[in-house]
Amino acid sequence: MARYFSIFLLFVSLTLTAQQIKSPSEFLGYELGTEFTRHHEVVDYYEYLAEMAPDRVKLTVYGQTNERRPLLLAYVSSPENISNLESIRQEHLKDTEGSGNLSKAIVWLSYNVHGNESVSTEASMQTIYELLTNKSAYLENTVVIMDPCINPDGRDRYSNWYNQYKNTPNQVDPNSKEHHEGWWSGRSNHYMFDLNRDWAWLTQKESQQRIKVYNEWLPHVHVDFHEQGVNNPYYFAPAAEPYHEVITDFQREFQVTLGRNHAKYFDANGWFYFTKEVFDLFYPSYGDTYPVYNGAIGMTYEQGGSGRAGLGIITAIGDTLTLKDRIAHHFTTGLSTIEVSSQNATRLNEEFRKFYKNQNFKYKSYVLKGDADKLNALKSLLAKHKITYGDLSNGTYKGHHYATGSNGSMSVNNNGMVVSTNQPKGTLVQVLFEPNAKLSDSLTYDITAWSLPYAYGLDAIASTSLVTAQASQRDAKSTNIDKGSYAYLTDWNSIEDARFLAALLKEGIRVRKADRPFVIDGNSFDRGTLIITKGDNEHKSNFVDVLQTVANTFQKEITPVSTGFVDSGKDFGSSYVQMIEKPKVAVLSGEPTSTLRFGEIWHFFEQQLHYPLTVIDSEYANRVDLDEYNILVLPDGYYGNHFNEEQLSELKDWVRNGGKLIAMGGAIDAIDGENGFGIQKKKLENDEEEDIEPKPYEDWERERIKSAITGAIFKTKVDNTNPLAYGYGQNYFTLKLGSRGYDYLKGGNAVYLEKNAKPFSGFAGSEAQKQISESLIFGTENVGRGQVIYMVDNPLFRGFWENGKLFFANALFMVE
Questions:
Q1: Which of 419, 456, 494, 761 is within CB 3.0–4.6 Å of 373 for a Cys-Cys bond?
Q2: pTM given for the model
Q3: Hey, what CATH class is 585-682+703-813 in?
Q4: pLDDT digits (tens, 9 = 90+) for 661-675
Q5: What angle do CA 286, 289, 293 make, to 5 degrees?
Q6: CA–CA distance, 279 with 277 (Å, rounded to integer)
Q7: Is 3.40.630.10 the CATH classification of the domain at 22-357?
Q8: Distance CA 5, CA 8 (A)
Q9: 773: closest CA among 790, 792, 757?
């Protein structure tokens, strides 16, 4: 009798709480789905729930955006689970070592990674309310972690824009202004980065703060809520091929289990949906794949709508899609996910343990060597992912040699490190480091190559043997500068060196560069060496003190010399030892540039190089006096005929008078041709005529892919006598994102593909490979007293292609 009375009291307590807790509509003062809720109002509602139900909701702030908006996590579960939350977490993490004994399911729901896919944050509020009222039974054996908005800056940008431009009441006509957001859209974060491509690379503030907490939990199930085109029905798991080969049978199977449960509810409501199409599980930096490679059932859910849909829009078939409809769909799949996870808590725990126990990869160790700055940059990334590594001081190692693409050996001499798959994060290590990920289908949603040794410019061996780390013999760099020296020298090999130079220039210190190798005091120095002379800096009374401080900040080794007379090479007064002009940089924004590509440049300057730039929007660019700047950057984009003949002539005059123009990707098309500069698109020789057989209509997509490159890595030749390539070796591995090809320049081919180049990693169609054969990657053209720098490939892509960044720094500082 006492037991039944306790159950009765619990029921009464939950009923009273349900009556007391306000729904989102009641709290906000408008019916959910009739307005877009601003981020501070969302925060207010979650704080309200945590105050009203502190035994079932724990709210934490895990970070802050660039625009100072808080990033929240809400832990939702039964009173018993919330009171034991930390012990649940610790017991769960023991499963990564095979010793856990947890019986709870851990489900993480992430909303609004793309700011203008705004429905999911609204749905999150309805979902948490339902969990606390009518669906609390799910929480007895389940901990639900909810991130109501991954991208508050982008979401508020969209919400504020929509509230400003919408009709009253809202207009469902798709031609109305409220359905055409414009260039500065809310999809991306403050720096115009796509946070859904940043889970592995962690270039953005939001990602770095989120991954720290994610790795403290490593949930069983993770859902990333999205929106797609207005006319698309709902998408949910199972995902499309290709699946990465490390994905387990259970991870595949459970996606089907979840999908069937979702389908049950959608069928009952007559809602349309699709599965197993478009959204694959391959590229590792998504909100579905990154969790998968860490043992979760990772999934993307896609609702039709996005920034075009507003509060309501007429679709192509004449139906009206409302925000209320969109909320209902995400609300349904969210609850369905928690329901199935709760029903399968025991199985989820068992399979999670197996995931971390049954790791048996071909390559047991990845041995890397190279410049210390590049090794340190990689170590920093690995530490954020809780991937362990060790130093190597000497030895010769055999295996797959990344530099050649075949088996070989590599010697390490106190400049190496090793990353093993024999660790809890072994699966993630395999995915991030493998030389060439296996593709089960060439039709993919994103890039097909990303291997970190190539991305970080490190020589590497993938070994089938387990390599043991050695005690490091490296000492921290410390500089004690002799104030009586004639000059101070330091190398130029990495983006960290560029940060050092940028810091000196901002301090007003004058710096020269060596355009020829030289030897002084028996020490050899390469092209690009920075030469800081006392004579150049007599205007600065504390010159040596500032140099000392900046050198220590960047751990730079400084070599003092007592003379400018070299043993061999060019003396410091030679015309081959030129002063580095302090860049005054402008970058074009707005139409016709790509928001993402513009954002990469913006972020590079402000958050990586820490050097100022001026953003000039295309709306008023014609009224700007370019003579105020010595560098103009044209980001990749869709230029068409953006520059008319007069504008192109003015641009050429500016370059002739000493300006430096950096044209990237599609911007090159806007300045080539008869009225432009000297670069020319490649023209393919006509192949011998072949008999063309009619092909089925359904095969058109696979025919099209023959002319595409979906993010593949190619080995290029480098002319490192060109200032654009200072600090590089004879080869560079470029991430090629398309089949755009340009002929070699008459001179100035800094980086280029040779004939019949094949991808070292990733997919490139047969026709596309012909198009890029013998083509330019990076080059320079002298025009009068100025320079045009062509960047066909993107060295700043998504901020993660670390080895490309020095090319961009060279364009700023070394090319003259």
A1: 494
A2: 0.95
A3: alpha beta
A4: 999 999 999 998 777
A5: 130
A6: 6
A7: yes
A8: 5
A9: 757
